Amino acid sequence: MPTLERHDEVFVLDLGDTENRFHPDWLAEVDGLLDEVERAEGPRALVTAATGKFFSNGLDLDWLSTHGDRASEYVVSVHELFARVLSLPMITVAALQGHTFAAGAMLSLAHDFRVMRADRGFWCLPEADINIPFTPGMSALIQARLSPQTAHESMTTARRYGGQDALAAGIVDRAAGEEAVRETALEIARSLAAKAGPTLGTIKSRMYVPALNALRDKDNPFG
Amino acid sequence: MPTLERHDEVFVLDLGDTENRFHPDWLAEVDGLLDEVERAEGPRALVTAATGKFFSNGLDLDWLSTHGDRASEYVVSVHELFARVLSLPMITVAALQGHTFAAGAMLSLAHDFRVMRADRGFWCLPEADINIPFTPGMSALIQARLSPQTAHESMTTARRYGGQDALAAGIVDRAAGEEAVRETALEIARSLAAKAGPTLGTIKSRMYVPALNALRDKDNPFG
Amino acid sequence: MPTLERHDEVFVLDLGDTENRFHPDWLAEVDGLLDEVERAEGPRALVTAATGKFFSNGLDLDWLSTHGDRASEYVVSVHELFARVLSLPMITVAALQGHTFAAGAMLSLAHDFRVMRADRGFWCLPEADINIPFTPGMSALIQARLSPQTAHESMTTARRYGGQDALAAGIVDRAAGEEAVRETALEIARSLAAKAGPTLGTIKSRMYVPALNALRDKDNPFG
């Protein structure tokens, strides 16, 4: 289960030490921890990290396969998480120490910056392989954060990007050794904690109006 | 005239061995060959190539100069070709062995990937020089596929990009020797033939909603 | 105060030798000089330059602090300047010999190309630091001209980019020694003067429809 720690001005949200798939309970937990981060005042920043082999593998397809009647409501809640992180009024950094797949990769893109382990682990959007098209909201999020060339390749080919590949493609902002991933993310977060505040929230919200509108379309999450 | 061959899972559409301008008969021919590609089932991919000095020089301005009354209908049919290739439910690769100009360059951008001859031939959008502004649909297509910096330079200056320049600008994905252009495109296509299917079609259609809408606006193709 | 000189086919607009903030009188002066540039005929291009330590520091916050009641009208006039330069029917090059901050940086992005001094001076969007969120029009302009990664970093972190940093991030097209900044801009402008004309104006206007619409929204400049 996700946990939250505070190191001076930086909150560290640890997504867990499993595949960290988005089970509804996990989503509720993360949402509650983000409430705590938002309620805090003054300079602060968020690092989202995880422990073990996975940052996150995204949607909980096992749960979904037995709760098909709740698919729409479930996707709405995932979209809400993306929209919330994308517009958080503080700097956010994802520390990708392990595999970052599908909705896990999209969650990483909702952060301001990404640090990825250089020597192991993949960032990948496997949707074209697993026959789950991106929702319009997901598509808008990914395309808003990546260059046209990278968005196209990653979304149509399910390419698995190692850390150096992801850096070259502009998917992540830094690649680092295993031990340095979280520390590098913390450094970036600390150095930008003073930016927190409603102005930054407004800046991000205005930058991503189309993506946020698509992600917040609760009536029609599948387009 | 265009021809179609199949090499295992890869269809090769050869645009011809002339300037390969978009005469209405040529457009109808290409459309029919794409029908054949779409009707096929299972893993498959498309390589669009040509023979000789030109990939394509784009609109058939000679024909257009004597059929001004059909300009609107003609541009609609060119837009339809772009929209069709842009949303084809399989991986598409353009093998640019020769000059790729104007609407020929736009057709190349409607493909998923581009391989360009490294040592000879230019990719160029000469519209600013020949006093033919991009239609809104063309503009949307080009801007959806290129970085803002490259789209701006290529659209406002009519710069002729050699293979290495085009690679550096992110216009093409690979530059290769003359002999290797088509083979490189075939390799990319073969390696991604398994992605073919309606999911990939949906992914592309959702990624390019604004460009596809502009290209499919039959009432007002000139904006 | 701004001045205008003509060197053969190239107009040089010098923004001044102070901080070159956008006082209403300065805006009116620049607008009048741009009228002169637009009225000219035949091949021509525009270089926007300045003298001294600053290209421009942007909005005149001193004036604004004593004219709060005219804030809306003032921002509309700044938006109009951006929209006008962004759609000018000739090639425009900004020669950034000194600090280029906030709305000064946005003005530079409204030009087709930017040449920046390599060894000194910063290009910076400090809005996140000074608690002035970008208006929707400003946000649209910046995001239309920069890659998603660069737009995000520059808009959320107030990073100060030196010339080489700005070149690497694709903010400017060239970095040059102090003495060479203006000459490099003049060379680019001269080489592209023949592109001037209504076709180029239409091309730019169609490329930037969303940004131009946001910048020309006089009823609601603050979103």
Question: What does this entry look like structurally?
Answer:
The structure is a homotrimer of 223-residue chains. In chain A, the strands form three sheets. In chain A, strands 1-2-4-7-9-12 form a six-stranded mixed beta sheet, sandwiched between helices. In chain A, strands 5-8-10-11 form a four-stranded mixed beta sheet. Chain A has one domain (3-215): 2-enoyl-CoA Hydratase, Chain A, domain 1, CATH 3.90.226. The model of chain A has no long low-confidence stretch (mean pLDDT 97). Chain A has eleven helices and twelve strands. Helix content of chain A is 46%, strand content 19%. Chain A has helices at 24-39, 61-65, 71-86, 103-110, 127-130, 136-145, 148-157, 163-168, 181-191, 198-207, 209-215; strands at 3-7, 10-14, 21-22, 45-49, 54-56, 58-59, 91-96, 99-101, 113-117, 123-124, 160-161, 174-176. Chain A has 223 residues and is α/β, with parallel strands linked by helices. The two termini of chain A are 31 Å apart. In chain A, strand 1 (3-7) and strand 2 form a beta hairpin.
